[in-house]
Design a protein that fits this description.
Residues 209-241 are annotated as: Disordered. By secondary structure, the chain is an alpha+beta fold. It has a domain at 45-167: Jelly Rolls, CATH 2.60.120.790. It has helices at residues 9-44, 86-95, 172-202, 216-233, and strands at residues 4-7, 49-52, 58-66, 74-79, 97-104, 109-116, 122-123, 126-132, 138-146, 158-164, 205-208. A 5-stranded antiparallel beta sheet has the order 2-10-4-8-7, covered by helices on one side. Strands 3-9-5-6 form a 4-stranded antiparallel beta sheet, with no helix packed on it. Helix 1 (9-44) packs antiparallel against helix 3. The longest helix is centred in the first third of the chain and has 36 residues, at 9-44. 20% of the residues are buried.
Length: 241
């Protein structure tokens, strides 16, 4: 007897769910990977760096490449490791003052902050000069002005640079997207493992055995039993004279 076929609706739905979950898993995994890569890059990035001659007042203009917009701020630091003597280091810590102005490439002023070591302290060979708020990513120009005179020897050079302020909370998107990727991958694994074997063997179809037509003898026996049951079930009739 030939078997019949009909669409395996459950198998189709399971496979669609597996494919959709796998797509979400891979997409969320990529987002998590990219977010972590941006965080790791921002930790060591210096959007601005310049060398200053602190032996006399002056101005220098350098590029400011803003590549991170998720930090909670930026700091302007002066590297004191290049100071030749302790006296020079003390002069820089006690007297340095200046300013930094950031413009976009069209010449519009974005930020203007003063630079000073009057309330700063040295830590790991660097001193914090100013705090900057986070602003949009892009290419800018930073103009640094040194106001003080004679706080370093003529041939001494100090490096000033910007650094993103990160505390670790910026990695929340990494955790969130990673969790979504894990959940979607688990759903894809379960749905795929339960539907793939049947899909491999039968595709979108499933075999169904047709119902056998009742034989003539069974039909007669069924009719007899029906008549017997109906006669037995009839209540006795009363006779009226």
């Amino acid at each position: 007897m030939t078997s019949m076929r009909k669409l395996a609706i459950g198998r189709i739905i399971g496979m669609l769910l597996a494919v959709t979950s796998l797509t979400i898993c891979l997409f969320a995994l990529k987002l998590s990977w990219d977010a972590n890569a941006r965080f790791e890059q921002a930790i060591t990035a210096r959007p601005m760096e310049a060398v200053l001659d602190l032996s006399h007042p002056g101005t220098v203009t350098v590029p400011f490449e803003q590549t991170c917009s998720f930090s909670h701020g930026e700091g302007i630091y002066l590297d004191l490791n290049d100071a030749e003597t302790d006296k020079e280091r003390a002069e820089i810590l006690g007297r340095f003052s200046g300013s930094i102005v950031i413009h976009d490439l069209a010449g519009n002023e974005i930020l203007n902050r003063g630079l000073s070591t009057s309330q700063a302290s040295e830590m790991k060979g660097e001193v914090r000069l100013a705090d900057l708020p986070t602003f949009a990513e892009g290419d800018y120009r930073a103009t640094i002005t040194v106001d003080t005179h004679g706080i370093a020897s003529p041939h001494s050079r100090q490096t000033i640079y910007a650094r993103y302020e990160l505390c670790g909370l910026e990695q929340i998107p990494v955790v969130v997207f990673g969790f979504i990727s894990f959940c979607a991958g688990f759903v894809a694994l379960v749905c795929g493992s339960t539907t793939l074997p049947g899909w491999w063997r039968h595709g979108i179809w499933k075999l169904v055995s047709p119902e056998e037509p009742p034989s003539e003898d069974s039909t007669i026996q069924k009719d007899d039993s029906t008549e017997t049951d109906s006669s037995d079930s009839e209540p006795p009739r009363e006779l009226f004279f």
